[in-house]
Design brief:
The complex is a heterotetramer, with 2 copies of chain A (about 100 residues) and 2 copies of chain B (about 475 residues). Chain A is mainly alpha-helical and about 100 residues long. Chain A contains 4 helices and no strands. In chain A, about 75% of the residues lie in helices and about 0% in strands. By secondary structure, chain B is an alpha/beta fold. In chain B, α1 (about 1-25) runs antiparallel to α2, α4 (about 85-110) runs antiparallel to α5 (about 115-145) and α11 crosses α17 (about 445-460). Classes of the chains: A mainly alpha (about 100), B alpha/beta (about 475). The interface between B and C is medium-sized, with 13 and 11 residues. The complex binds NADP nicotinamide-adenine-dinucleotide phosphate (2 copies). The site of one NADP nicotinamide-adenine-dinucleotide phosphate has 33 residues of chain D, from α8, α9, α12 and β5.
């Protein structure tokens, strides 16, 4: 892991942090619960790391742990999007909703 | 060639990241939120697709099995009752951090003994945060689901023990950073945080869990970001940072609205909420009323503001409330809902329940919009809410919730409170509101009582 | 310039773009003029590239162009911050200003 | 060692970047804006300091000379009159893009003939954008400073010629990407955009410059970002992206408020504003009044809203306006200011001028706050504004500014308009407002006339 890669990662982390704060701070309290389940689903992107482990077959241990990790993370992907979608379907306006 | 197509995969990740950010931007309001989910789903699909294309991958069987099993577990997790959302959220944090911890462990054994210092530090951070979030979230879920005892379990020197555990884990991490070859230490660096996660939650009351959960949420985000550093994946770093800041901000909002010091939350909300002796209650007198009387008052009102709280959630009363909303609207009564930021047991709890019962979201006012309305309100109908309406927060400097922003229901002409007894709410303190002359207590289960009122209104209520 | 460096740059650019939009969109019209001169000054960060050129002495041309570039950019740095500061000093509130 | 300290420099850049972002965040409101500048200055100092530490640098003489000269030029540029801010801004865009172009040129000659394709493409983008922004901004500055003819110079097939030039430049760029060795082509890739920059501005009227300027602003930002790609400097990429989006957003705001299609702006606002024949003016009659009468009406009013415009800026009348504000406030008249987003000739123009005259910014209302106030306003005093008050934008579908959001001054009980003649404003169209019965024209130079009114008020005005 070159020191340049580290710096790059730090820059990316810093910028993403700023975006996170700017964006999340402005989400209406109305949607805080769906927000929680959505970020949950997005965070489950860790599944990509797990997939690589499970597939690259570098060692038996890696494959086993990787596979379990895929199960755990992917269940979050499916469950997270599913429930967020269900919640948002519920939110209806009495006025015709402007897109 | 391999080179080029790696670039292509990276570009796919770039697009996925952009979609993730848009997904959160579009969550800002209900009108764009659906689009937000879509963006998130497409981004996720792209990211997973891109990974499957990667060259290193030689064997797809285990991946397939994993994905299938994951989907099978995920669907029920996505179909839970709305009232079960808090524990569901905790559970998914557990799954997420489980994944992170496992990947981190595997990475360590693949790379040891030659792991660069920085790499080893982030790896340790990933694993420590991941492990404690894993068990911590499981505990939280257990307490919320009430399979574990809700009440805080405390003993002398608890904080000392807990912080001690954490210190040891960090010490081991430091040692491993300098001597990444000492694999025998590694299991402890995983194990001790697992224990710490449990110990951390033990002393915290069930009602405090939501704050803990969103804190664990930001831990989970951080550990995912750390994993991104290890795997040098910008996609992961960004997703982790977004998740982390989201959890962080939500816990700040909660602790502010609960009037708890933010530090108190940051350090895992150690210690329990002080339960003030509500002994002097009998002294003062309260006026109570029947569903029939309540229906009469409501029917006579022009403007009614409903203040739902945790009680509505536990009683599952939202659908009855919807019926009440309908029959009052039919009678031409202007009925709105005032939602306190920490009403219920998680942020936005009430909004989801009322939305579930098909109450249009433009009838829901947040605290800032609602408070100016109470002086012109004929009836403030409180359904299973307590602390968020407690005037002591404004008036009584000695009260533990003094300074907490509340809904000024006591400014309404008449106040009606549906709850089962005089017992206190989450903060465990008495509520002077109940002893005002303008206040009528409607004792009973939220669902049942609202049902009765609706029936009374149905059967041509008075005048 | 490795393809990885390119990707990194693209990520950084994308994130910075998001931040730019989120942040700028929310700046009150009251301050649009100072905003223009501030971004001006910040953009003059290009001076770092110029300094490297002027100092690394890789070629006479590079040194000459670099030096001119330093002059151009640094005058923006100085001028930009100066005038932005002057403008903002002018903005006064009749109420005691909360920090 | 060298390695380590490079890392340190990179970390310095990281901090500088964070400070730049904070600097913009803090510009969001007047109370934090000063802190914003400070953050920007510190960040800049860090960035420059870090660069000076870099190992490649062997000779500091030229750098020193450059910095000193830059400072010498910069100070006067920082001290210009507020009314000269537009041309000053244009000039600084020219300087910035000059720097970018020069660096790009040097980089090319240092790297040719072996320049990777992607590198060469961004390099070309950097140079083309930089060069056209350089001459374009100089032209803009010249027109605003009125050293160049303000009026648009047009000829047949102009757009064709211009776009042709641009096409050729891009063609050369493409060729250079594939054959970076053909150094003889390079000068054309610099020269042609320089010419294009001039040609692009020639057909644009002086008054349109502000929109062009903020467009050039975003070009400058983009070219700086491109330079960041070439030099692989995240700091530059980020600063460029921030500057770019800022310029972009401001031009969107302007074009919206001016009711010009955004495309029209994006493509360099080609073509001039149509000047409607204001021939039928004589037909209708207007009522005019003297300073004495105006003073009387103002003194009798309870609520006065002043609508400043470009005329106040050219007349430098802001200080007299301040005196008017003082004497009316002393008489207990409630006087406020309504600022249209595109009043004057650049975004926020009026705010800066009034702030310069020490008028507290909480007396300045933006359009959305102001419009609901006019119906309760006794006197709307328009000082050198025209288009932004033109009711035709609401009523007359045939008007070129139809649909442009305006200040509804015609809703006020009395309207008084200070201007020198009946001649039209920037949009070159007649203003029906002047022919209303409730409207009084106060013909004269803004500064002089407001001065007279103040004197009248001073000398115990009527009743
Ligand atoms: N929203 C969040 O994110 C969050 C997170 C953590 C903590 N909290 C805390 O939770 C509290 C929320 O306030 P709140 O007013 O919504 O709830 P609360 O203060 O906890 O009061 C709930 C009330 O509902 C009544 N109740 C319980 N079950 C009922 C039933 N089946 N039917 C009718 N009434 C019932 C209870 O009185 P009876 O027992 O007499 O019926 C209780 O007084 C705040 O103190 C907040 O700080 C919120
Ligand atoms: N703010 C921006 O960013 C921006 C950018 C580009 C374009 N624009 C355009 O500029 C216009 C701004 O509208 P505006 O109402 O502020 O200005 P305007 O519509 O251009 O009208 C200015 C008026 O001021 C009068 N005037 C000129 N010199 C004067 C003096 N010395 N004393 C008194 N009056 C004087 C002129 O009438 P007399 O000649 O009769 O005195 C003229 O009618 C809009 O059309 C807008 O689209 C704005």
């Amino acid at each position: 892991m070159s020191s340049e890669a580290i710096i790059n990662s730090l820059f990316v982390f810093m910028l993403a942090g700023f975006i996170g704060f700017e964006v999340i701070r402005r989400i209406s309290p109305l949607l805080h619960t769906p927000l929680m389940s959505l970020t949950n689903a997005l965070d489950a992107i860790a599944v990509v790391g797990a997939i690589a482990l499970a597939g690259e077959g570098k060692s038996t241990l890696a494959t086993i742990l990787g596979t379990i990790a895929v199960v755990a993370a992917f269940s979050n992907v499916v469950g997270g999007f599913l429930i967020t979608d269900r919640m948002l379907r519920m939110f209806k306006s009495s006025r015709p909703q402007k897109p | 060639m391999a080179h080029v197509s790696n670039t292509i995969i990276e570009i796919i990740y770039l697009i996925a990241t952009a979609l993730f950010i848009l997904s959160l931007k579009w969550m800002s309001g209900p009108s764009t939120a659906r689009r937000g989910i879509l963006a998130g789903e497409v981004g996720m699909a792209l990211a997973i697709g891109g990974t499957l294309l990667e060259h290193g991958i030689i064997d797809y069987r285990w991946i397939a099995i994993g994905l299938v099993l994951g989907a099978i577990i995920g669907v029920p997790l996505g179909m839970v009752q709305m009232t079960a959302v808090p524990q569901r959220t905790a559970l998914s944090h557990a799954f997420g951090s489980c994944c992170v911890t496992l990947v981190g462990t595997a990475e360590f054994y693949l790379r040891t003994p030659n792991v660069p210092k920085f790499m080893m530090s982030v790896l340790s951070m990933e694993i420590i945060l991941g492990a404690l979030t894993f068990t911590g979230s499981l505990m939280a879920a257990g307490k919320l689901q009430e399979v574990l005892p809700q009440r805080p379990i405390t003993y002398k020197g608890q904080n000392f023990v807990n912080l001690g555990l954490l210190a040891v884990a960090i010490g081991i991490a430091v040692r491993l950073v300098t001597h990444p070859g000492e694999t025998h230490l590694f299991p402890f660096m995983v194990g001790i945080p697992l224990v710490f996660g449990v110990m951390m939650i033990v002393p915290i009351g069930g009602a405090d869990m939501p704050t803990v959960i969103s804190l664990l949420n930001s831990y989970a985000g951080l550990s995912a970001a750390a994993m991104g550093f290890v795997l040098n994946s910008k996609l992961l770093i960004i997703a982790g940072a977004l998740d982390g800041s989201s959890g962080f901000i939500l816990s700040v909002i909660m602790s502010k609205a609960m009037n708890r010091s933010f530090a108190n939350v940051l350090f895992g909300a150690f210690g329990q909420v002080q339960t003030a002796a509500a002994g002097d209650t009998e002294a003062k007198t309260v006026r109570s009323a029947t569903a029939e009387e309540a229906a009469g008052i409501l029917a006579a009102a022009n403007k009614v503001v409903v203040v739902p709280g945790y009680g509505m959630a536990v009683a599952q009363a939202q659908h009855k409330v919807r019926e009440l909303y309908d029959s009052l609207t039919k009678r031409g009564v202007d009925i709105k809902f005032a939602i306190h930021p920490v009403a219920g047991r998680m942020p936005g709890h009430m909004n989801v329940l009322l939305a579930e019962a098909d109450i249009p979201y433009d009838k829901l006012m947040d605290m800032d919009d609602a408070n100016p309305e109470f002086p012109q309100t004929d009836v403030a109908l409180i359904i299973g809410a307590n602390d968020v309406t407690n005037p002591a927060a404004r008036t009584d400097a000695s009260s533990p919730i003094y300074g907490m922003p509340i809904l000024d229901v006591d400014k309404a002409r008449t106040v009606m409170v549906i709850k089962r007894s005089m017992s206190p709410g989450f903060a465990g303190i008495d509520n002077p509101l109940y002893y005002l002359d303008r206040t009528l207590m409607l004792f009973g289960d939220a669902k049942g009582f609202v049902g009765d009122i609706v029936r009374e209104l149905g059967g041509g209520a008075h005048h």
